[in-house]
Amino acid sequence: MSTSTPTGGGVPTGAPASGPVLVRTREELARARAGLRGPVAVVMTMGALHAGHAALVAAARERATSVVVTIFLNPLQFEAGADLARYPRTLDADLELLGRVGADVVFAPSPDVVYPDGDPAVRVSSGRLGTVLEGASRPGHFDGVLTVVAKLLHLVRPDVALFGQKDAQQLLLVRRMVRDLDLGVEVVAVPTVRDEDGLALSSRNAHLSPLDREVALVLGRSLRAGQGAAPEGPSAVRRAARDVLVGEPLARVDYLALVDPDTLADVPEHFRGPALLAVAARVGPTRLIDNVPLVVGAAR
């Protein structure tokens, strides 16, 4: 758990020399929150932080006086089995990074703090928007995401929340939840941060072998190909991106979709205007996603 930021892997600096305050419980968070000067920004993460998260915190620092980062590996958004167990846990390194980039408070609760009664009986429903693309491949995933985001917003009480554009569907759903449920927080998107080779930064990249990483670069290449064909219309975008993907048989494509960024509906052939080109594929044991916004039918 996406303003202009650097696209390289460097980590911006500017945090207080003392580093962030680590809190684990609701009571500790409430005391720390009471001492923050406003406005307050929140960046929500599951840990295993990288330069993409650093860019989120840097953008938060530009927009707010105080920055809270949450680190919580939310069990509700994982399917049962190995995926949750395989997710990297690197709290010490995360705290070191956050000490360099400007976090004031780090809230790192355990599941029993966030869900004191166990699995919640009442959850936030993502509706139709949560059943397509990622939701079709991971049923119930976005219900889990929205439930924990809503809880963390209530606990942190931020003025602004920053999310990465790489998780475009999540970003859209959070915005809709905030608007539909009148949660009273500004949601800001931060552009995807990429390594020099074009691979979108992700905590899951740690699972890629050297060969897998080379294969994974096909996702970015396909998106760039589709972006280059945008002036020619939707069919050209889809064809250009698909042609790149089929050239890499080791990438097992889940979906390639050109959709309306507000509804996630496939854009028709006559469509002209802003769209989102999104791709998901499994490389080795690791499932990766990426996307790029584009304007279909715009002059070169």
CATH class of the largest domain: Alpha Beta
Low-confidence blocks of residues = 2-16
Q: What is the number of helices?
A: 10
Query: What's the end-to-end separation, in Å?
Result: 35 Å
Look at the structure and give the mean pLDDT: 91
Describe the structure.
The chain folds into two domains: 21-190, HUPs (Rossmann fold, 3-Layer(aba) Sandwich); 207-296, 2-Layer Sandwich (Pantoate--beta-alanine Ligase, Chain: A,domain 2), CATH 3.30.1300. The two termini are 35 Å apart. 36% of the residues lie in helices and 20% in strands. It has helices at 26-34, 51-63, 82-86, 91-101, 111-114, 134-137, 141-156, 168-180, 210-228, 234-246; strands spanning 21-23, 40-45, 66-71, 105-107, 160-164, 186-190, 251-259, 273-283, 286-296. It is of the alpha/beta class and 300 residues long. Helix 9 runs antiparallel to helix 10 (234-246). The chain contains ten helices and nine strands. Residues 2-16 have low confidence and may be disordered. The strands form two sheets. The chain has a six-stranded parallel sheet, sandwiched between helices. It has a three-stranded antiparallel sheet with strand order 7-8-9, with helices on one face.
Strand and helix layout:
Elements (H helix, E strand, L loop, with lengths): L20 E3 L2 H9 L5 E6 L5 H13 L2 E6 L10 H5 L4 H11 L3 E3 L3 H4 L19 H4 L3 H16 L3 E5 L3 H13 L5 E5 L19 H19 L5 H13 L4 E9 L13 E11 L2 E11 L4
Parallel strand pairs: 1-4, 2-3, 2-5, 3-4, 5-6
Antiparallel strand pairs: 7-8, 8-9
